[in-house]
Amino acid sequence: MSDPAMTETRQPTRTKAFEKRLKARYAQERRFKVFGLFAILISIAILFVLLGNMTINGIGGFQRAELQVPIDFAQSGLAGDQRSLSQPGAIQTLEMQGLPQIVQFAAEQHIGEAGAQQLSEQAWRDVAASITADPSLINRQETFWLPSSGDLAMGMDGEGSPEMQALASQLESAGVLEKRFDWGFLTRSDATDPQQVGVWGALKGSILTMIITLALAFPVGVLAALYLEEYAPRNRWTDIIEVSINNLAAVPSIIFGLLGLAVFLWIFPNLRSAPLIGGMTLALMTMPVIVISGRNAIKAVPPSIRDGALAIGASPVQVVFHHVLPLALPGILTGTIIGMARALGETAPLLLIGMRAFVATPPDGFTSPATVLPVQIFLWSDEIDRGFIERTSAAIIVLLLFLLVMNALAIYLRNKFEKSW
Amino acid sequence: MLPDRGLRDPARSMSPAFLFLLALGLGLAGWLAGRAKARAFTRGADPRRVSARPGYHAWFVAIWVALPLTVLAVVWTTLSPALVDQWVLASPAAQDLPAFGFERQSILAEARAVASGNAAAVFNPAAQGLVEPFREAQQFYSLIGLGFAIAMAIILGLWAYTRVKPAFAARVKVERTVMGLLLLASLVAILTTFGILASLVFETIRFFGMVSPIDFLFGLSWNPDPMANAAAPQGDRYGAIPLFWGTIFIGAIIAMIVAIPLGMMSAIYLTQYASSRWRKIIKPALEILAGVPTVVYGYFAALTVAPAIRDAAQAVGISNASSESALAAGLVMGVMIIPFVSSMADDSIAAVPSAMRDGSLAMGATQSETIKKVLIPAALPGIVGGVMLAVSRAIGETMIVVMAASTAANLSANPLESMTTVTVQIVALLTGEGSFDHPATLSAFALGFVLFMVTLLLNFIALRVVKRFREAYE
Questions:
Q1: Among 3.40.50.720, 1.25.10.10, 1.10.3720.10, 1.10.10.10, what is the CATH number of A200-417?
Q2: pLDDT at res. B115
Q3: What percent of chain A has pLDDT over 90?
Q4: Which of A179, B286, B364, B428 has the fewest CB within 10 Å, making it most exposed?
């Protein structure tokens, strides 16, 4: 059938040169693939280094060096009854009755003078707090673990002066100096001494700020998304709104800080570093994220739902609020949680509106001075005292855990309520 | 302080929270009243004669009670501090205050804090005499505001209540209000953009009144001094070129050298080679990388990466390597951007029609040849757009550079030297002690304005490019 002359002139396809080329091409293919895998592995490795670094440092930050001090209150001559010790001024009363000296004396008795000198100056406050929590202590003996000074804590880590290292190893072998898990880290606030710091003040500031952000950004974001997706006429105004929302989503966060500084603090000059202003600033930043994810969720609701509702006589507002919104809500909530997680980790705009003040007591309202967790991390990372390094990592772990919970919640919501129509 | 003082003190009862609760409570009362009235005439009536369900009548009354009250609460809490200050300044006790400046402000702030119960006692004795006028003024204006609010709510509520009749089209009214609210909510975005522009432009113009724009945009030395005499001309201190260069070098060069290859190759591997099981594990891991707060990256850069780079440089004999090197900040910023570049590249490659890929494979090209010669060229506009978005994100990034880069301006191409960026300077200038009338403080707004315009331009072009590219294949 085929022409015999043609078959004779046809060259064999798989010549040596061909095989060589093919081999080179396959080698190139493999190299390319390995390079891709390599890129992913590098990214994952960096993630692990980052998280591992924080975890290793941070575990130390949840502990602190504490000295064992047994105190016999029955002999100490402290006076007070159940009622007076549970009143607000009790700590001052105890200080006036000489509690600091009693603690110091007990420490000298138990761990020697050199060790007792390294008891933190604020250690008696821990004792006072235990007494006010349980006034019956005053009639018996109790063993306390009290924070040591920062110098001794450093000596324990093999840093600092040789004398401290020697003292630390001596006290450790006597069993009166230990690294103990520090629950107080989660309940105290900022302080100048790394042994006394805690994240509660910053955490509470973060929570208050997030409440304001959510209360402002969620309704405005959802309503704007509904308007743009369901009602907005196609005209120039709608275009301007859409362009500005898309741009706001891409504006660097620090610009929102400048806005907060120039506008919000100009209107409310007395609310510098208040969660109210921080929350308003972050709300402006979060709102576009909620609008964009909300529009996608609303778009995913099939038109047949709207048509069905309209067909049985619902008004356009009823269609949206009775049918579209409930169906889109899981998607909107997912986007909102992701936006809130971003706001929770945000630092720069809050620095500009003054939430970097040293705040030693947890804020008691939306208008009292506060700081937030990321800013607290930033402030501690700037401290010269080496004791702050581990504390900073511990605070980072707390922040990351919060973000993890929020993201897990978002993923759960997405998986549970996601519908494909 | 007595525990129940907060309740008795009218100054506290005008707090925003109280007003909002009042709006909520009165609104609920209006809602219940409206519903009760509407139910009474709906029951047993011919449905065709009743133009709205009782719920809509209820909402109609509630809206008329609560909405004006909420607006009033917002306006009043914004205005009343200024009115209180005016009252206090007019009082005889304020006559011997220092005329202007910081001291006057701090005395006033102290007296205000004591009067409103935020502080126990004054430190500055000069503030003591002002506490009483403050308390009086706060009480006076609180009572006025509260009285006005309640009167307004009752009058409007009663008026709305009288309109609740069978023939009254309450639903139309309520829905019109809802539409108004929706429109208002979407206008917030425009308002925010406008607010950003207004605040930046306003302060930038003030800055350019003190320092010429030419000195600012083309000067080579950046060395602002917040303590210098504000009136003296100091154009030679505000040359922003070193800042622009540092920003571009860290954000657009070093970071992109890390992020583009790693992000692109991750995206290619994930979309073209990886099995779906792998992809399910790897993708969330990359998303975690994107979700880590920037302050954590900054801490990592400052504490781990920067010293490591300095030590490595010194080990190979570069002795002047800085511990705040541009390289450390740029590398970590690049890592932060990887997921962003990766997801942009992912989207653009996915948008290329599969017919093109299938055609190339059918012609005998290997997978990598298809990717390099067909997919990437076809997806290039999208990828370029994505990279531009990544650059705009990198140059606006603040915490990494604030923590890992230096504050001293330096015009150099050596990545081991310290450099500063626009965002670092904004933070440094605005968290200091400077006053708002000083060019050093105002220059931060000028820098912010430049940053805003550049990121806006990059985003605008990038979105255009991506959009046109998408349309080409649709």
A1: 1.10.3720.10
A2: 74
A3: 40
A4: B364
> With an 8 Å Cβ cutoff, are A36 and B200 in contact?
no
- A258:B270 CB<8 A: no
Is the separation of the CB atoms in A301 and A327 below 8 Å?
yes
Average pLDDT over residues B304-312: 91
Which chain B residues are within 8 Å of A223, Cβ to Cβ?
Answer: 181-182, 184-186
pLDDT of residue A9: 64
Average pLDDT over residues A380-394: 86
Question: For residues B113-124, b (16+ Cβ closer than 10 Å) or e, as one string?
Answer: bbbbeebeebee
E strand segments, B125-271 = none
Q: How many residues does chain B have?
A: 474
- Contacts (Cβ under 8 Å, ≥6 apart) of B103: none
pLDDT of residue A60: 83
- What are the φ and ψ backbone dihedral angles of B71, each rounded to 5 degrees? -60, -45
- pLDDT level of residue B9 (50, 70, 90 thresholds): very low
pLDDT digits (tens, 9 = 90+) for A300-325: 999 999 999 999 999 999 999 999 99
Q: Annotate A30-81 with DSSP letters as a single string.
A: HHHHHHHHHHHHHHHHHHHHHHHHHHHHHHHHTEEEEEEEEEEHHHHT----
Q: What is the secondary structure of B356-414 as a DSSP string?
A: HHHHHHHTT--HHHHIIIIIHHHHHHHHHHHHHHHHHHHHH--HHHHHHS-SS------
Phi and psi at residue B383, to the nearest 5°: -65, -40
Q: Measure in Å the smallest separation between the Cα of A224 and chain B Cα atoms.
A: 4
Smallest CA–CA separation between A160 and chain B, in Å? 19
User: How many other CB atoms are there within 10 angstroms of residue B281's CB atom?
Assistant: 10
The predicted complex's ipTM stands at: 0.88
For the question of whether the overall pTM of this predicted structure is more than 0.80, the answer is yes
Record the tokens describing residue A216, joined without a space.
Answer: 């402002």
Q: Which two tokens stand for residue A168?
A: 């630390």
Sequence-separated (6 or more) residues with CB below 8 Å from residue B8: none
Could you say which architecture CATH assigns to the domain B235-473?
A: Orthogonal Bundle (1.10)
Longest dimension (CA), chain B: 96
User: Which candidate from A54, A220, A345 shows the least CB-CB separation from B188?
Assistant: A220
Per the CB < 8 A criterion, the answer to whether B3 and B35 are in contact is no
Q: How far is A132 from chain B (nearest CA, A)?
A: 20
Which residues in chain B touch residue A252, judged by CB atoms under 8 angstroms apart?
A: 392-393, 395-398, 423, 451-452, 455
- Distance (Å, rounded) from C-alpha A249 to C-alpha A346? 14
- Is B423 in contact with A252 (Cβ distance < 8 A)? yes
What's CA A362's distance to the chain center, in Å? Answer: 16
Of A33, A241, A374, the CB nearest to B186: A241
Q: How far apart are CA A147 and CA A197, in angstroms?
A: 11
**Distance of alpha carbon A352 from alpha carbon B311, whole angstroms:** 33
Secondary structure (3-state) at A197? coil
Average pLDDT taken over every residue of chain A: 86
Structural domain spans, chain A:
4-59, 64-181, 200-417
Q: What is the average pLDDT across B355-365?
A: 93
Give the pLDDT band (50/70/90) at residue B7. Answer: very low
Contact A287 B188 (CB under 8 A): yes
Taking residues A185-197, report their average pLDDT: 84
Residue among B183, B199, B402 whose CB faces A258 most closely: B199
Q: How far apart are CA A146 and CA A70, in angstroms?
A: 10
In A, minimum Cα distance to B279 occurs at A40
Q: Are strands A141-147 and A177-181 parallel, antiparallel or unpaired?
A: unpaired
pLDDT digits (tens, 9 = 90+) for B202-241: 999 998 988 888 888 888 888 887 777 766 667 678 888 9
List the alpha helices (DSSP H) in B5-118: 5-8, 10-13, 16-42, 54-90, 101-115
What are the boundaries of each domain within chain B?
Answer: 5-168, 235-473
